[in-house]
TrEMBL record:
Entry similarity comment: Belongs to the homoserine dehydrogenase family.
Chain positions recorded as NADP(+) binding sites: 9-16
The protein's name: Homoserine dehydrogenase
Annotated NADPH binding sites: 103
Active site: 203 (proton donor)
Catalysed reactions, as listed in the record: L-homoserine + NAD(+) = L-aspartate 4-semialdehyde + NADH + H(+)
EC number: 1.1.1.3
Annotated residues for binding of L-homoserine: 188
GO molecular function, one term: homoserine dehydrogenase activity
Organism whose genome encodes this protein: Stutzerimonas kirkiae
Pathway the protein takes part in: Amino-acid biosynthesis; L-methionine biosynthesis via de novo pathway; L-homoserine from L-aspartate: step 3/3; Amino-acid biosynthesis; L-threonine biosynthesis; L-threonine from L-aspartate: step 3/5
Amino acid sequence: MKPVKVGICGLGTVGGGTFNVLKRNAEEIARRVGRGIEVAQIAARDTNRKCDTQGVSITNDVFELARNPEIDIVIELIGGYTVARDLVLEAIAQGKHVVTANKALIAVHGNEIFAKAREKGVIVAFEAAVAGGIPVIKALREGLSANRINWLAGIINGTGNFILTEMREKGRDFHDVLEEAQALGYAEADPTFDVEGIDAAHKLTILASIAFGIPLQFDKAYTEGITQLTTDDVNYAEALGYRIKHLGMARRTEEGIELRVHPTLIPADRLLANVNGVMNAVMVNGDAVGSTLYYGAGAGMEPTASAVVADVVDIARALSCSPESRVPHLAFQPDVLSDHPVLPIGRSESAYYLRIHAKDHPGVLAQVAAILSERGINIESIMQKEAEEQDGLVPMILVTHRVREEHMDDAIRALEALEGVAGKVVRIRVEQLN
Ligand SMILES: NC(=O)c1ccc[n+]([C@@H]2O[C@H](COP(=O)([O-])OP(=O)(O)OC[C@H]3O[C@@H](n4cnc5c(N)ncnc54)[C@H](O)[C@@H]3O)[C@@H](O)[C@H]2O)c1
Ligand SMILES: N[C@@H](CCO)C(=O)O
Ligand code: NA
């Protein structure tokens, strides 16, 4: 059989890795597919080429590649959602299949892109977009298709997890570690996407759609970054038996879907609490299977290329079956996506870690306890530190039972209004992840 011909757009971290893996493992891959995969063309700028292109034809115009009649599959690895959107839509219009690692593009424009792909009977594959090399989209879409998914939770940004790990284990400075993550090729072009939780929210949006059969709704995801975390909170959490992780959480309730990314305390003995460095992990709870965990490198040149190339292999195999019998883009048939709403953050529920700076007066603890109990919020543990020398304030650390966020908002307002409480109450959500 003739080889399947691919075109690679963008030859940076992921593009370079993809080219190298396709070349190095060409023989093994051909044995899996039943025919070869050939890189027919590359579209790249002169700068930032992360591999030797070994004589493959190169253009600097991605649209020329998208229109190249020789090419069966366009691999979009340029990033962003302007040119990338036009490129992917052009490739689809030309009747080509698409593989992308671009979660921003899928989370923001995926509904439109999949609709166009269906019209043209082509596949848009995006395994590398979520949790890099971990085949979590395949696991959810195919491996767990017997289940009603209850919830999923994941550490899905490698850069952020790398930063938190280095800060906790080596006491390193936030900005120092971020620079290293950028040099290693983990970070997004705009690294605020990583540290403010936007990248994780893109990925969570995609996972939630596949898990629950809802359209992509990135604009409804609640996003909180890790830039406000202090070493104090990391240490207090540790003393209480927790680790702080930047978690993406999607949960189905009767009212709707919780979709949220924020720093989260996790009991230190949970597997997820021990996912360190650039590693990612996603825990998925299904009604039949229970909890399952998927772990691996969430970013980097070849781990991400592993997912890109696996998508190319899937498409090459699917070229011989009819469009209707393929696995749907969002796992569920497009005409039966559910309108179960995504909930505003106020209506989601979790336990909370609170750090309150109390004046060293008698009775403040009793007032704090009263405010919480009046709102039906139970305290699970409490820790009070020595008065801090400079300002005489006493850090009071509480962990509560689960409560609706809007009740906690109300309690925090009341706590901050107390005469005996100074400044803002720090709140970090806690998830047990059983
Ligand atoms: N780096 C990772 O670990 C990782 C992991 C998963 C997904 N991703 C995603 O993969 C995509 C690529 O990320 P990356 O880390 O490889 O970025 P990168 O910056 O290393 O590479 C992007 C390349 O595309 C080129 N490019 C940009 N616009 C172009 C255009 N119009 N024409 C030709 N070339 C163009 C750039 O010059 C650069 O070489 C992004 O969507 C990113 O979110 C990255
Ligand atoms: N910037 C992303 C790349 C992988 O999607 C991360 O650090 O996880
Ligand atoms: Na993946």
